[in-house]
Amino acid sequence: MGAYLDTTKQMGLQNCGMYHISLDDPRSVQQAIATMLSLPDRPTAICAWSDYYALAVIHELQRSGIRVPEDMSVAGHDGSDVATGFGITTMAQPAREIGRMTAKTTLALINQEPLPEKRITVQTTLEPGSTTAAITQDNN
């Protein structure tokens, strides 16, 4: 989340805050969306923690009469089958590469070997879907 916050600041974008929702409690999604929609300067986009959360957000926005992406853009993070199946814009993670690096690190720890790297960075890929749109005067 730190990189996201740093980037929004560098780009001069307004940070409307972070909202914590639980997929186990639909009321938390309803409350978060209601709070965002009641802001005087309402956001034009929501970046969800995962594609599953993005789907829950989209459902609640539509239930509230908000059109996605015409009124509000939504993006997820995973590159999961959920994103593909529902056309959600997502930041795809290289799951196989993450798994390979995790196994390598775990084996090094088990064998009490020095860790290959302290910080591991992977390249994500933007996979555009039908849930995001360009900012226009109408939604700016």
TrEMBL record:
One Pfam family cited in the UniProt record for this chain: Peripla_BP_3
Species annotation: Bifidobacterium thermophilum RBL67
Domain Transcriptional regulator LacI/GalR-like sensor: residue ranges: 4-132
UniProt entry keywords in alphabetical sequence: DNA-binding, Transcription, Transcription regulation
Domain of life: Bacteria
Protein name per the record: LacI family response repressor
InterPro entries: LacI/GalR-like_sensor (IPR046335), Peripla_BP_I (IPR028082)
Gene Ontology molecular function terms on file: DNA-binding transcription factor activity; transcription cis-regulatory region binding
